[in-house]
Structures are given as structure tokens and as C-alpha cells.
Amino acid sequence: MTVKKYLATSINSAAQGSSTSSDSSWASRQIDRFVAWATGAYRATRSFSLLRIIYAVGMLLFLIPSYGDRAYLWGFASTWLEPEIKRRGYPFFIEKMFPKDNTFVFDLSYWSLIVLVLLFLVGYKTRFVTPVMLLFWIGLQSNSMLVTNGGDTIFRITLSFLIFANLSKHWSVDAWLQKRRGHRKSYTQKHFPVPLWLGAGLHNTALMLCCYQIMLVYVNSGIFKLMGKEWLEGSALYYSLNLDAFQVVPLLSELAWQITPAVLVATWVSIYFQLLFPVLLLWKYTRYLSLVLLLGMHVGIGFFMGLWSFSLAMIALDMLFVRDSSWEKAGNWVRRTNTKAKQILRSEIGLPPVPRSIPPRPEQFANAGSSSTASE
Amino acid sequence: MKRPLNKPRIMGMLSALAVVTYVFVSLVVVSPNTPVRAAVFSVASPYYTQKWNVFAPSIMKVNTDFSFQAQWRDANGSLVKSEWVNITDIEQGNSLGNWATSRIHKQSLNAMGAYQGRYNKLTAAQKKIARDTFIERSGNGFQPIGNSELIQKLVDAGNNRSSVISFLRYDYMMMRYATIFATAYFGEDIERVRWKAERTRANDFEHRFDAEQQFKLSDLVFGWRQSNVTIDGAVVNEYAGVIERNGGKQ
Asked: Which residues, in sequence order, are bridge partners of residue A49?
């Protein structure tokens, strides 16, 4: 049986709720469904592309503001940290990527990392850039244990999964080049063709691992919060807004904690929506409600506490729970609304209507096939 | 009839296996200390180490700054003692009102946090020794107390050798950090340094609107340490640059 036939049979049987062989058990059908889901198409490609852009912005917000202090934080002026750094157990070659005893190589590595993040941002040669960027990212972080936060940890962990994902299917130079090439195959596609089951299998494994990682962060953090007196009584946000190290604009933090209902609600929302996140994902409406609330929470963390790299990492991972079809619907809605608004505006100022049809509703695409099923 | 194994099915199994393995490893890594955790941690570390309890269960309430004091010899050979200098204030000099700030604002803050964490693992008798000076007389001058002597003195007061070593390692790092900073700050050949955790905290939630300050926390002051560090001129210049860029001397 060819791969295509196998997938077609599996998807068909899953859709019909029946098996190809009469004695197949329920468990066997579920396995078939899983195999079809995991290897049949690249999932969440728009969310992954958005994640690539958000991650790159978060990493640039780490690298560029710290550029002037690089020698002090990670370079030749940070050798006082060595007794602890040497005990962390990074391999020799990682430790040598940003050498403290060679300023030229250190600076070259720092610049290389910035360039790699910029290439990652625009999505150029992403398959190659992602693992190399990860190596440089770990190399820099291995030079100090004092200046990282949860966002940097998330970048480090999830990028090791994302090496296997297609992050540049949309909004990228790679996608633009592919479009320009049309049906012609690139050198890599011609000489090293990756079958759909393998490419999609690796991509979707990365998706599952990233989704699990964010659930782990939320649930683990929620459990700890549930054990804290201040979290339960609703005052935790007041204390965090009063920490000097997390006050970007002290006046804003002062104003925020003086609104008592906001402090109580935000504290409780952060516990219960984190703790219940995996359950809330099961139903579409609670999924979107929790994503919107958690998005608000992370924007708040970035705005009031200045932890932008953490906030952006979490927002990017949250987006993975939005399906490609939902992004398409949202995109079509925006385009339709935009066109309608333009028509109304033109008629108001007496111009003839735009000679262009309004994009059709998403239902009209229903059977046209998902763009996420295309292979690379 | 059993479905034959084929490539997509094998890929699906490997995919599930990868997820299950990572779920197991990550759950063990974030779980409380057990023998299993120690074994898994040694494999997962440092790439997959993570902890998500920074603000919980107990929320941070105390601001802890890292301040130091230094001593050097003047032209007559007499010891001169400086005022306290708050490194954290200097490092955070440019972070106010800046949403894209340098990571420098976290360095001394986290260093003092980690140092205090190790100090808190010592017994009361050991803490008393840690707050004392680590310098002894030697002939007409002074010298740092030898490592083995210091370790033995602390171990005798608590019998927890690993906590003692861990504390002393960080203590040595803090001595180097404070010495280099003091050299750049005062432009002198620093002979001794000491440091303190300067602590402040906001009123409790119930008293948040009170004008009167509810807590007056005492600083945690550590004893003098001999500055036995050879410092490169370029490093001193880098520290001087940091001080200058962040608003200059206090």
C-alpha cells in the first residue's frame, strides 16, 4: 500500500467512524486517526509562521538593548562568574562559541547571532538558520546564569523542537521564493526530497511538544500559585507591582495597584485560567476565551513589568492553539470588512465603487482543500 | 486482521514516543527532589532544565539590592574606607521608563538573590561566621583565611559540607565582582571589600493606602573579604563604562 493510499484510507475511515477491516478495534481506529493527523498534513502553519516572527522580535529585544553591555554581562568582563558557569555542564564547543578570552571572536559571534535572528525574522533559509541560531543562543546563555528569564528558557527549549517544524510557510522570504519558483523544485527539494509523512510527522511532533510545553508552564505555575496565600486572597498582583526590579514606569504600577477590583480579578484570572488551561482548550469557545485572557495577561506582564521576551514567547506559543482554518476565516473576514469599508467610504465621498468583488465567505472554500496539506 | 507496519505508522509511533518521553522528563524535572529526579535531571540538564515557580507559591515582597563598601591604602599607607555603593541602583539606572532595557538591570539583583539563597541554607552558627570577616592577621599585615581552614570552621559549625562549599564558592565570586566594581568606581587599588543585601518592602495589602511605612527591614551585612584579584585594565575600563552609561557615580 502506498503512503498516499494509506493516508486516504485512514482519513476516510476516521471520518466515517468505521474501519477498513471489520475486526478493527476502537483503539486501532484511534491510532489510525492519530497517524493520519500526525503524518497527513502540516498543521498550524500560520501559527508557526507567526511564532517565528514573534520569537525573533523577542530575541532582538534581548540582544539589541544589551549590546552595549555585552562584555560586562557575557564577555571578558564577566569572568568573575566562571566558578559557577563551569559547573553547568555545557559541552566544550558551546562554551567556546562566545569566548571570554577573545574579544574579536566574541563580538563576531554576537553579531552573527543578531544576523541569524534577523534571517529568522524574515524567514530566509529557515531550515538551516533555526538550528544554527539555537546553537548561538545557547552559547551566549551559557556565559551567564544571572541575566536570563523564563522567556529565554522557553526559547531555548522550544527552539530545539522547532528545528523540525516548517516555520516559514507564510509571511517569509522562503515562501516568496517558493511562490516565485512555481512548480520548479529547489536544489534541496530535487536532491533531498522529504516525503510528506516524514516532513509532516516531524513538524506535527514539534507542534505537540510546543503545545505540551506551554501547558506545562501554565499548569505547573498554576499549581504553585494555588499553594500561595497571597494568590488565593487575590493580593499577589499588588506585591509584584511594588517590586522595584519589575517597575518600568513606577507611576503606572502605582496607578494599577490602586484599582483594587482589577488587582483581585487579575490575580484570580492568572491562577484559574492557567490551572484550567488544558481543560479550557477542549471547547472552542472556552479555548478562545482563555487565549484572549492569557494574551491580555501577557501584554500586561510586558507593559507593567517589562518582561517582554517572556510575554512574547508565551503569546507565540498560545497562538499554536489557533487552527489554520481559523486564521483563514479571520483573514477573509478582515479582507471583506476592509473592502466593505472602502466601498462605503467611496460612496460617501461620491466616488464610483471599487471594480473588485468582495472576497467570498470562507464556507465557499469548504471543499477546496486546506493549504496546510501542501508539502514543502 | 492486524494492520501492517508502514512508514507513516512508524512515524506516528515515533512521534507519540517523543511526546511521551518529553512529558515524562519534563514532569520529573519540575517535580520535587526525588532519587528519580536526580537521575533524570543529570541527563536533561542543562538544556531542558526549567522551573516555573518564580512568583509562587510565595510572592516576592522584598526588594534586595547589592551594595558594597571598599578599603584601600592612601599615600601614607593608612586604610581608607568608602561609603556604601549600591550596584543594583547603578545597573538599573537606565531601566526606568524603558520597555526594551538591557539585561544589565538583573545582574546584581540575581547575584544577591542567589547568594542569599545559599546563605539561607547554612545553620545559625554558620551564618554568624559568614557575616564575620574572612581576613586574619599575618605578621604585621593581613591575609585571607585559607580555604581549607575556612571550610573546616564552617563545617564544624553545621556538618553540611555541600552547603558550605556552595556558599563559599558564591562568596568568592561576590568578592571578585565587588572588587572589580570598586576598582572602577574609586580608581584605587582595592585591598578589602564587604557587601550587604539592602532590603526594602512595600506595606502589606491591607495597609496599601497607609502613608506610614509599615516595615523597616535591617540590611544583611557580611564581613570584610581580602581582595585577592588580579584585574586586567580593559576589564576596569569596561566597568567604568558601565558606571558612566548608567548615570555615573552616586
From this structure: none
